[in-house]
Amino acid sequence: MEKTYYPKPSETTREWLLVDANDQTLGRLATKIAALLLGKHKPNYTPGVDNGDYVVVINAERVRVTGRKLDQKIYYRHSGYPGGLRSVTLREQLQRYPERVIRDAVWGMLPKNSYGRKLIRKLKVYAGPEHPHAAQNPRRVEL
Predict the structure, then answer these.
(1) What kind of architecture, by CATH, is found in domain 15-66+97-129?
(2) What Å distances lie between residue 122 and 56, 72, 99, 112, CA to CA?
(3) Domain ranges in the chain?
């Protein structure tokens, strides 16, 4: 009887990947980033095992959306107090916090548990072309 291979944390090698969001469609970009975080591009992918890579996203402010989503898509947040529901459109969110737009789109495609929270910490999003991860020597990925 053959035993099933189960990757151990010590056997996984993590890379730093650089993704340029310039003129990329938001949803399509988010699915590819989520797959990189989950490690689906590696031959030893196992569901529930963290063997994905770190992903650095630059130019988040230049991401595209299709249709009329800039004015029709609304982000909600609640303070926890009565009457504390706040809403903001995608256009306003892109102007004020473009990093949150990509982070929220990727978070929607990850598991909503401790595993997903661990994965989202490996995502680094920056509004412009500058990032502080030059020391990690990230490899540019074309999506």
Answers:
(1) Alpha-Beta Complex (3.90)
(2) 8, 30, 14, 15
(3) 15-66+97-129
Please give the structure tokens belonging to residue 62.
């230049």
Q: What is the pLDDT along the chain (143 residues), one digit of tens a residue?
A: 888 888 887 888 999 999 999 999 999 999 999 999 999 999 989 898 999 999 999 999 999 999 999 999 999 999 999 999 999 999 999 999 999 999 999 999 999 999 999 999 999 999 999 999 999 999 999 98
β-pairing, 139-141 vs 16-20, is: parallel
Taking a C-beta distance cutoff of 8 angstroms, is the pair 27, 108 a contact? no
